[in-house]
Structure prediction request, 945 residues.
Amino acid sequence: MFKCKTSAEVGGMGHSVKRKEDARFLHGKGNYVDDVKLPGMLTMVMVRSPYAYAKIKSINKEKALAIPGVLAVITGYDLAEYNLHWMPTLLSDTQMVLPTDTVMHQSQEVCAVIATDRYIAVDGAEAVEVDYEPMQAIVDPFKALDKDAPLLRPDKEGQKDNHIYHWERGDRAKTDDVISKADIVVKERIYLPRIHVASIETCGCVASYDKDTQKMLVYMTSQAPHAIRTILALVAGHVGLSEEKIRVISPDIGGGFGGKVPVYPGYVVAIAASFLIGKPVKWIEDRSENLVNGFARDYHMDCELAATKEGKIQAFKVKTLADHGYTDSSANPSKYPTGMFSICTGSYDYADAFAELDAVYTNKAPGGVAYRCSFRVTEAVHAIERMVDKLAAEINKDPALLRMENFIKKDQFPYASPLGWSYDSGDYELTLQKALDMVGYDEIKKEQAEKRKQGKLMGIGISTFTEVVGAGPSKDFDILGIAMFDSAEIRVHPTGKVLARFGTKSQGQGHETTYAQILAEELGIPYSHIEIDEGDTDTAPYGLGTYASRSTPTAGAAAAIAARKLRDKGKKIAAHLLEVSEEDIEWEVGKYFVKGAPEKSKTIQDVAFAAYTNFPQGMEPGFEETHYYDPPNLTFPNGAYICVVEVEKETGQIDVKRFVAIDDCGNIINPMIVEGQVHGGLTQGIAPAMYEGIEYDDEGNVLNGTFMDYLVPTAVESPHWETGHTITPSPHHPLGAKGVAESPTVGAPPAIANAIIDALKPLGIKHLDIPITPAKVWEAIQAHSK
Amino acid sequence: MKHKITLKINGESVTAEVDSRLLLVHFIRENLDLTGTHIGCDTSNCGACTILLDGKSVKSCTYLAVRADGSEITTIEGITAEGTNHPMQQAFHDQHGLHCGFCTPGMIMRSIDLLENNPNPTEEEIRWGISGNLCRCTGYNNIVKSVQQAAEELQKESV
Prediction:
């Protein structure tokens, strides 16, 4: 286990200190975007398309403009005058800001109404008359490639069909050869449904342009404010928005989960409106606007897993069809159109694998966000973990034993995976064993056998996943060319108190506490004396933001290294104060002392004061450091989850009886926060496994675009989570840490699916796609009992 | 159409002219600048807008401001004196019952009402009791623990 080096008062790594950021949230003093109120501020509301695919014949603004308080109706034609009606996506595609002639999905922005308050703006939006000519939408991605399918993107030069790109990794021929000769090959088409992050705070912004100073201030729900500033400068530079004049502030964010990484049209229109009108403009999505725009997952995966008859895995192959909606606005690093999907070979040791993917356009909302997941890792993990369970069922072997026999062993790290990753560290056997012990696996198996004898449906599901998080390194990972490093800037004041700023942005992860603890660990200054600041591009050092579990792997590492630079400078000052040479100075947490004479010492606070008052001649005054950290590799958190369910045969009702989650995220900075992150991720894991999925009818209408019918789990659906840890430090991270908050979202769905399918095994049911609802279970039971 | 309403909010009397259609949550947030009460949905599902109206927890996003005429309202800003913690706030802090903080005010207001009616709830009763409030961050384990801690504290206080 991890041993704390600092006292509880200093509160370095390993201490469960209470969160520093809590007070403002507990007292209703958080400052979210919708709380921002500027003098003369206007409100913007979108008119949205009722059709999934339609020509716009005309937009009549007159009746809207006649309403007192409605100041403007902005259409695509208005933006086209400034060449702002289209914008680039992060992946070389283009997205409409506002349309000039065609709408491509239901609820797409058609035009924007600007008014003096929200109620009047909504009246204005109702009064706008749009004449549509509906067309037959493509909803089924498999039909998007039909020869007679309409070409959805004729605007794109050279686009002849609805195929966006093909991607592949691995050795197809060799993998096919191994599969053709294998004793056992299990196959399944697995669908990961289109879902939404559904953060309780929707997206929005307040844009405020000052025509005199030409400064654009934007408060925005953004997980990556610096990247947004640069994108704005690139997209709107031609109209005069220059990067030094743009200030993006991400204030408090009410949950992000990847959904607040993209640039949504609403942001751009609000910014354009403020630029044109010269007054602050606020735009806040309502819940339906939020749910029906943007998405995650939506992968159809044809999987094949080959093994010997004893159950030794030999090869994995997956062919995926990805439904991207009408444009590829996936929030992925540039060179990784499918994100880290090639982590799909999992936690198991075998040589051959091949993964390929084709992405298509349909008449659905674009998105493809990395929903609490390091870019398509959830899809990858679900595929392999379902297939491993299917293999276990096929050869009638205990799925825990099958996993144990196939795991990458701890002495095999760093492990070169068949699809090109270098796993940094792990002890998969120990982690699974801990989960088995915690759940009481043998007893539970006995209970299951007895229940089955009584005709009851009880299931046990396991998932032993490996994640890949913390992008960069910059040689491989960039967003629009900007390398995926991250940053920390530390200012130690003369009295030994600290202000530290970061290029990341917390959305509930607890950065103000965690980063303070990292600095406390490295400098010995109490965490309570350290203030953390993020999210303001005018003050924070440049960074790529918080998503894909990258804050601790990148900015956390930057904090540690910047602090170590400070310590080096402090050593020179301490030598000067103690009148010895630098080589005679040693460091222990919080102080410098003379080698062999520990009574002669100076605290870090003494040294900080001297850096401003009594520094060696010729030394640069002050006690500040900045570091931009470019990681040498990603980190590979992993875990073993076990779920126990009972299913009621008559109704299909699923009762999650137990859920044990053992996570290995390397060294832990704050155990309380890590456990809390795991709890939250687990509930976001049960959500798609049992409840959530955006449904469309044949015409492209969204059938569940509100919280009345898109079922976010409440405290009742969410079981009591049982958690634990193993610790295998990352060998390359300065703190041995890995990142954790996404592991449970990634690892939980297959454990739950495996448990439910295991419960239904006596009926001959071998697979169900998530969300596995009571209705789906009931139907499967009916179909199998005929 | 405008209506004159008078109500008490966090102990202070307020009189205002409001539109018939103005929602109470907008009155609280926009007219009174009490932004601790949040909006997370439009369908009364998420509970981020929960306040106490005449002592009962109410979702202020589906309540017209005119209907609140003559009532007594408490928002998150009014449950305790500035600089101090209500036992429920202290419990959410101690038990790590919040992450992003967006659902927190509503969750706290609902939990206060829950304990008013059931001072010593079981875990099951707490889970059902807060099931009208959605949290997307915490997975609820620690919210349940927070309510349990507050229940213990409040019972000690009432002895």
